[in-house]
Request: fold
Amino acid sequence: MQAKYSSTRDMLDADGDTTMSLHSRASTATQRPEPGHTEPRRPSSAWRPVALILLTLCSVLVISLAALGLVFFQFYQLSNTQQENISQKEERLGNLSRQLQSLQTQKRKLAETLHHVAERLCRELYNKTGGSRRAGSAAMAHGPSRSAACGIFPDRGTNPHPLHRQADSQPLRHQGSPTMPMLDELCFEHRCSPCPEKWKWHGDKCYKFYEESKSWQGCEYFCIAENSTMLKINTQEVLEFAMPQSYSEFFYSYWTGLSRNGNGKAWLWMDGAPYSHELFEIIIDFTSLRSRDCVTILNGKAFSKDCRELRRCACERAAATVKLQRLHEPL
Reply:
């Protein structure tokens, strides 16, 4: 009985060992990894500082990029603002430039208007002082002496014969006629005149009829020395002004700038302008054997004379601007 029990016990122990062995194998089989799958290895502690450094660098790079983007954005905004300011300033500058141009135009127009008004006023003052032929009526109110001294005579159609004028003027010289200083006082020119002293102002020109007698070429050089040219009669206005200046008691004629280069050639002024037959006629003495290629004016008429003869010089020059600062001065 005991042997049977012992045998049974041994069998149970053997079964228990077998069961434990199977359980151990099953547990081992369960824990064994499948083929093709390796167990992940834990990172080595040596790579941790490197990873930390890389992370730090990436963070710095991101922060730098963000800062750079912010700076660029601010610069872009500033650039746009400056561009807008520049555009506004350019627009203002353009407006100011247009306003300045408009003001300059207005200033020029006002200056022209002022010049015309001043010139008209100065002409009136000039005429009142006897500086122009058109003031003849006022001069005659002071007697014939003023007309003679100031070079103011009636128009060509009403001018008496020189001999009659000589006869009429003789009593004045013996019956207490004004002295030369008194005549100068009657005939002074207003200080606003744009012409030099003792020059006559007419239109936009100044004229001077000298007492010096020279040849035609001599008068040409003389006028050039006076910064002027010889007398040119090319308009009706100049004709009406110049011809009365040629009346003389002693037949003193004046050279003009009209001449020709030989008999039968065209009459030309010094600047090359042609002579107009409609203005005045040139009286030519065809019986004379001498050349008569230069023109003088005497007693309201034009004559062709020998250029070598001695005649008085008549010069003209462009008038300057009216002296505005002297308009207020008394006559």
